[in-house]
Design brief:
It contains 21 helices and no strands. By secondary structure, it is mainly α. It has two domains: about 425 residues, MFS general substrate transporter like domains (Growth Hormone, Chain: A, Up-down Bundle), CATH 1.20.1250; about 50 residues. InterPro entries: MFS, MFS_dom, MFS_trans_sf. This is Major facilitator transporter.
Length: about 475
């Protein structure tokens, strides 16, 4: 056991950074009604605080690979942990919604360097055939956070106030910094690469404008015309970035990586699938607390069941992928995840028998897809492409989460308006969540259609038991396979 622990100390150290991110996101979602009451704002307005973190993260992730190459991955990782911890402290002392939104954005800036650079360190110290298992070590401890986080966060909020949910990041960051200093290999020689300043400005403007515009829809903070205008400006900036990046050697997000089919599917298919993850992050706590009228602790425990299902299956996924391959496993799991979310529309009481199975099965299916796409996107990348590939994957992950939160918020707003608005009692109508769960669940089958583009042999190099080896061939997958 201790030998295995020592061998995987780098993935486990990186997992601590993911643990902070996931605990932070899960706890905030659970405490939304309490925070909204204390700050004197509508509950749905808190999705701006959730989205601000993801917007800032997505905006600065594109430069993470360049910064890691230029200044050293280990140094950048330690600095990012420090920024995240300091921003967490700022979140804990806020008294207004705008202040909380700004502090959350600073957290996102730290996370933009922390998570992708940590993954980059793992990838650079892991054999290709072990990437899937390394990703399990990276993400498995982090799933403990969402499994226990809602209950833990609800308990902290109940007995110590909501500010304690941010202060918990401080000791976690200190531990991660200590482990990094002790166990991670020293940085090699810096890699001198030109910095695409205009490309960064276009990508940051595009991501911030588009995600802010989408997140503000239904908030009544901005007129809907301004929200749509921001969204349009963001999309235009991203299109200009994409056209400019074609064929550039210094592109922060290199479009040429999409010539690899596995990377294409690991990014685009992942974004479609992760929309449901962001949406559920907002829907479940509101559904339990403001429709089923559960207490915050019960709500946290129920949300935790979704993550508990993920934890229970995560260690088995590499063996399943070794046995059956990526394509059938990803398609089946994506469909099951979608059906589980749609099934939540049938729940109208805590006593409904299907509630617990739907949460656990949905979490297990989600973990299966996440493990698969976290590995498959790297199947055909060369050593020189991993930095920009990691930045691309991290950016797309956070973009899809923010879009999922915005999607769920807009659907709820429209559904509530359609049934006559929020009653004086403050109980959100069940019919609004029926629409929200059905719309969100459709993302599972849609992503499965994209996963179906995989062909036999794709990502076999990530499997310990490979069909090519049975036939006597030991050739790893090559970029030409994506043609």
């Amino acid at each position: 056991m201790f030998k295995t622990l020592r061998a995987n100390i780098i993935p486990l150290t990186v997992a601590l950074s993911l643990l902070m991110e996931l605990v932070d996101a899960t706890i905030l979602a659970t405490a939304i009604p309490v925070i909204a009451h204390e700050l004197g704002v509508p509950a749905l307005s808190l999705k701006m605080a959730m989205a601000a973190y993801l917007i800032a993260l997505a905006a600065f992730v594109p430069v993470s690979g360049w910064i890691a190459d230029r200044f050293g991955a280990k140094r950048v990782f330690i600095a990012a942990l420090g920024v995240f911890a300091a921003a967490s402290l700022l979140c804990a002392v806020q008294t207004t919604l705008p202040g909380l939104v700004i502090a959350r954005a600073l957290q996102g800036l730290g996370a933009a360097m922390m998570s992708p650079v940590g993954r980059l360190i793992v990838l650079r110290n892991t054999a290709r055939s072990e990437i899937t298992r390394a990703m399990v070590y990276v993400t498995m401890p982090a799933l403990i956070g969402p499994a226990l986080g809602p209950v833990f966060g609800a308990t902290l909020t109940t007995f110590f106030g909501w500010r304690a949910i941010f202060l918990i990041n401080l000791p976690l960051a200190a531990l991660a910094i200590a482990l990094t200093l002790r166990h991670m290999p020293a940085d090699g020689a810096p890699i001198a690469k030109p910095f695409d300043t205009m490309g960064f400005l276009l990508s940051a403007l595009g991501l911030v404008a588009a995600m802010t515009g989408l997140s503000s829809l239904g908030e009544h903070v901005l007129p809907w015309q301004a929200s749509l205008g921001l969204t349009g400006l963001g999309v235009l900036a991203l299109v200009l970035y994409w056209r400019r990046a074609q064929g550039r050697a210094d592109a922060l997000l290199d479009p040429k990586l999409f010539r690899y089919r596995t990377f294409d599917i690991g990014v685009i298919g992942s974004m479609i699938f992760r929309l449901s993850n962001g949406a559920v992050l907002l829907l479940l706590p509101l559904f339990f607390q403001l429709t089923l009228k559960t207490g915050i602790v019960v709500s946290g425990a129920l949300v935790g069941l979704n993550a508990l299902g993920a934890v229970s299956v995560r260690a088995l996924v590499p063996r399943i992928l070794d046995r059956f391959g990526f394509k059938p496993v990803m398609i089946l799991a994506a469909v099951l995840r979608g059906l589980a979310i749609v099934g939540l529309a049938s729940v109208s009481s805590l006593h409904d028998w299907q509630l617990v199975p739907l949460l656990v099965i949905g979490g297990a299916a989600q973990a299966t897809v996440f493990t698969s796409i976290n590995a498959i996107a790297y199947a055909e990348l060369g050593a020189q492409e991993i930095s920009t590939g990691t930045a691309f994957i991290a950016m797309s992950r956070q973009l899809s989460l923010a879009l999922g939160i915005a999607f769920a918020g807009v659907v709820l707003e429209l559904a509530i308006t359609a049934v006559g608005g929020v009653p004086a009692s403050g109980v959100l109508p069940h019919s609004a969540f029926v629409i929200g769960f059905v719309a969100t669940g459709l993302m599972g089958p849609i992503s499965a259609l994209y996963f179906a583009r995989l062909k036999p042999g794709d990502a076999d190099g990530l499997r310990r038991v490979q069909p090519a080896q049975r036939a006597g061939s030991h050739e790893p997958p090559t970029p030409e396979r994506a043609a």
